[in-house]
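Extended Data, record Cytochrome bc1 complex Rieske iron-sulfur subunit
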Amino acid sequence: MSSQDIPEENLPAEQDHAHGAVGVADEKNPFADPGLPPHEHRVQDIDERAAKRSERAVAFLFTLSMLATVGFIASYVAIPADKSIFVFPIGHLSALNFALGLTLGTALFTIGAGAVHWARTLMSDVEVADERHPIAASPEVRAKVHADFRQGAKESAMGRRKLIRNTLFGAVALVPLSGVVLLRDLGPLPEDKLRHTLWAKGKLLVNMNTNEPLRPSDVAVGSLTFAKPEGLEEHDEDFQNEIAKAALMIVRLQPDNIKDKRELEWSHEGIVAYSKICTHVGCPISLYEQQTHHVLCPCHQSTFDLSDGARVIFGPAGHALPQLRIGVNDEGYLQALGDFEEPVGPAFWERG
């Protein structure tokens, strides 16, 4: 259907869009303004049934966007990260990545397609040209802008086309949820992992250098030995994360030199085991002074007294090193009698 098939009285009223003098090009004025061509009405302008069809098409696209966003979230939750599928002719792909890309792309594309179809079929398409004006906005210009905005809002049919308006709001409101869901991939939730290590009752103390379980006779007075939990190997995928919490330093003192009562109870024949991780910023402690029984963190010189509960005697560390309670098993090997009773390393979240 075209505008020629509609009686003149049914056509929308033409608006005055004069934009300066209209002239005819000739030898004296070859660049005369020819003016705008006659406006051709769209079928939606003259047939409400066609306008309704366009409205339903736009609403369908916005609704499809909402469903795609829901599909994005469902795919993220339901599809395993290691699942793969075959897509011809691309080949094998990650099922999760394929689903996320397809659903998010559909959600964004249908919002754009719906907006374009809305603008091309239902919003006003009358060309308007204005004379150039000074950059500084006069009160008249501001009034005109406000009037144009109100006119544009009216011509966009936002108030009258409630189905489009509501589905657009729904689509635009749901799409950001895709980004919110992706925040989950910033990393695994810590839960209470920072409060526990691999040490547990019965775990043998394994020498970091020889990879052999330690006996009390292996630890000489005045020596510094580093140990790890039994079963933790360097080729393990999570070795670095686990050793960063479970690294242990072992020192043998004369029992008479141990000042702290609990430290003596948790030791075995003067052998004490403390976390190797400095309580300042988590650097590994590696310097030991035999005469004073002090250990020093090389990063910021925090100093701890191993003969007095590993309390801080110098530097920025905020609290003593956690001690691991140890003993020997039936075969005579040193073993842990539990985990550290407090989190190792820096005072995260005020140790709350």
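Summary. The two ends are 74 Å apart (CA to CA).
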